[in-house]
Amino acid sequence: MSSGIPLAWKNLTHDRRKLVVAIGGIVFAVMLMFQQRGFNDALFDSTVKIVRELNADLVIVNPLRFSLSSEIRFARSAIDEAASHLGVSQVKPLFIENIAARLRIDKHRAHPIRVIAFDLNNEVFFDRIGEIKSQLARLNEPNTAIMDRLSMVGYGFDLSSSAKFPKMGELSGRPINIIGTFQSGRDFAHDGNLIMSQENFANYFRYRGLDPLSIVDLGLVKLQKDADSTEVCKSLQASFGKKFTVLTRQQFIDKEIGFWSRSTPVGVIFTIGTIMGFVVGVIICYQILANDISEHMGEFATLKAMGYKNSYFFGLVICQSIYLAIFGFVPGLILSWGLFYINSNMTGLLLELTMPRIALILIATLTMCIVSGLLAVRKLIAADPASLF
Amino acid sequence: MATNESNLEQLIKIWEPSVEEPCIKVEHLNHYYGEGEMRKQVLFDQCLQIRRGEIVILKGQSGCGKTTLLTLIGTLRSVQEGSLNVIGKELNGVSAEDTTELRKKTGFIFQAHNLFESLTAFQNVRMSTELQGIPIEDASPRIEAALTRLGLGHRIHYKPKSLSGGQKQRVAVARGIIHEPQLILADEPTAALDEESGREVVTIFQELANEKKSTVLIVTHDNRILDVADRIVVMEYGKIISNVLVKPNALMSSVIREFSVFHSLTPQSLSHLAEKVTLQNYPSGSEIIRQGDIGYEFFLIGRGEVDVEVDGKVVNTLSQGAFFGEISLVKQQPRSATVRARSNVVCFVLSKDEFQSVMDSSQSFEEELRNAIFSRR
After folding, report:
1. Chain B partners within 8 Å of A2 (Cβ)
2. Backbone φ/ψ region at B69: left (φ over 0), alpha (ψ -120 to 50), beta
3. Which among A3, A10, A386 is the nearest to B131, CB-wise?
């Protein structure tokens, strides 16, 4: 700015009440964008959370299994094949049921729940606080399971910290004993989680076949200490050909997210929502800036008559746009964080504010305000000093 | 006679052609508003020259085009037809960069103060100094001095909402002159001001005109400030109907009034006459008019002596205060004699049309003239 006077700042902050009202609009737009992105990311985050918890370097899966929630399985022989491959230390099978796993307690209706089962001797989850580990021994008992605390309330179980265990229920027509809880999280396709031993699993889900455990949902591969995961993944895939798909854990996560964002309306809906938030923000910010310019037309025309160039006015409006963006972003961020907290508790979804996401919305907010600034400045450029007389 | 001579000397000095380029030169300027069928002409073939250091008052009824002329001179409107040269730059077809440069050399004072509500009086004026690139150390004392001089010393750091209408206008004046511009364009600068403040404003204009040779063009109806004008230009329906350099006009009026033939003219007629009269120098021995030629001019001798020759023979000698050349104009016949300068002669010359219009406008002048002619023969 050729002027040592911070006119952009002064004009913006001169009328406090007007400024607050103006910022309110931008805060709204910011919150809209955060909410839309937040839910979008939450859906993906929630869906792959369980995968992130899995103690595996590589994952073996049926090539036709388009998503974790689809129940397309593969033969156990793959596990044994993989176990002897170069670089592989151990391969553990993982069994999952959802649709067939209907959980019921009295008075409440039966509802599908995701049941995850494995050989209790295997360390299938990272289990950082050792919660699952401490309950493993008791899961050896028949008809026992532990339940995810974040499962939906509708099942009818009180899973709060003061709850008493064991709790009785019915799973797929057979009685079940919930002996304790762990923490994971719900997602779009699953309203709750149970963990049990593979022996118990075989009893509950006999429909899977003569030997229910001969059909596997996921194969979890642990590599030897110095093995390179990408290399082993490639070679293992090569040896399997088209029969099975081998992915690194990250690739598996990306594939899952890719499915939800590209093959379902989820991604599209939330993207449209975000764009709408952006457009609302542009409109509101434009109104603020254009209004300010209109009210001070005489003063700006005077500056023009004095010899101020158009470049000065560009700088002035862009400056105001950036101030508005920041004034709106900070409260928007704080309020969104609060809203995330509330929503998270209500829906059980994982609503997280990570740095990259904050940065994304900040850039969107700045772009939003600068775009409206560029639209508003045309009015200012058109100011005719001859009209002052 | 002694007073007249010194007046005459002054007059001759003022009327000597100015070597300097005028600050504002208007030539055959036309301006139109609207397009196509709605097009209306607002300025008609305007011609005007204003020199550096002049204070000019532009008068006329609303709608006469004076504001349009002011905006054209100030580069706020584009020149459509004709030539308009301001501070050495031709404005017809001027580029955007040159326009900006020119605007920086100009100071505007509008009727509406247009101050930023969010800035103090000091900061509003500083918008001007910052644009000029004047560092704050130099600008600050200047701004404070200007505002104090305009009676705002105690209000320098107040925002417009705490200032009265007159005070705001004074801040606008300060903003318009703080950078000592070469050209000041003011539209009713004293309208909202009391006697004292208004006087202070025009005094500042005078100082800038005298000391920095700033040219000041004021559109105003305020009769209180007429005395500072060097030139008064009157417009009517888009045309300049009167353009008078006041002091020379006054001098001229007092000088020609001494001529007996003009004794009975009213001041108004005198002024009108003074406006139209030109001074001409004739070296010794030169012919001023020649017998037999068609007469176009009327002459009054301001200094020197002339010989009147009929058919080669000197029949009369005329000196200061005498007039000649009127017969051809009154009687519509060719020159009856040759008039030759005996010494270096300075004559007041009136063209035929102007002579006729003075005759028409003043009955007494015609009478006097006829008496004089009658008594001559």
Report:
1. 130-131
2. alpha
3. A3
Contact assessment for residue B321 and residue B263, using Cβ atoms and an 8 Å cutoff: no
Chain B residues within 8 Å of chain A (Cβ atoms): 67, 70-71, 74, 76-77, 100-104, 106, 108, 110-112, 114-119, 123, 126-128, 130-131, 136, 187
What's the pLDDT tens digit per position in A22-60?
899 999 999 999 999 888 888 888 888 888 888 899 999
A5: nearest CB among B67, B111, B119: B119
Interface of A with B in 295-334 (CB under 8 A): 296, 298-299, 301-309
Taking the CA of residue A255 and the nearest CA in chain B, the distance in Å comes to 56
pLDDT at B16: 56
Asked if B187 and A3 come within 8 Å (Cβ–Cβ), the reply is no
The two three-digit tokens of residue B130, written as one number: 């910052």
Domain locations in chain B as residue ranges = 21-246, 259-376
Residues A222-234 have pLDDT tens digits of 998 888 888 899 9
- Sorted by sequence, the CB contacts under 8 Å of residue B348 that are 6+ apart come out as B255, B256, B277, B278, B279, B299, B300, B301, B302
Q: Quote the CA–CA distance of A120 and A283 in Å, as a whole number.
A: 58
Global pTM reads: 0.73
Burial zone of B110 (CB within 10 Å; 0-12 exposed, 13-18 middle, 19+ buried): buried
Q: Taking CB atoms and an 8 Å limit, are A305 and B131 in contact across chains?
A: no
8 A C-beta contact, residue A114 and residue A348 = no
* CATH of segment(s) B259-376: 2.60.120.10
Write the pLDDT tens digit of every residue in A127-144. 778 888 888 889 999 999
A185 with A348: CB under 8 angstroms?
Answer: yes
Residues of B in contact with A302 (CB under 8 A): 108, 110, 114
CB-closest option in A2, A14, A299 to B114: A299
Domain B21-246: CATH architecture, name and number where available:
3-Layer(aba) Sandwich (3.40)
> Do B251 and B10 meet the contact criterion of CB atoms below 8 Å apart?
yes
Which candidate, B192, B197, B188, places its Cα nearest to that of B219?
B188
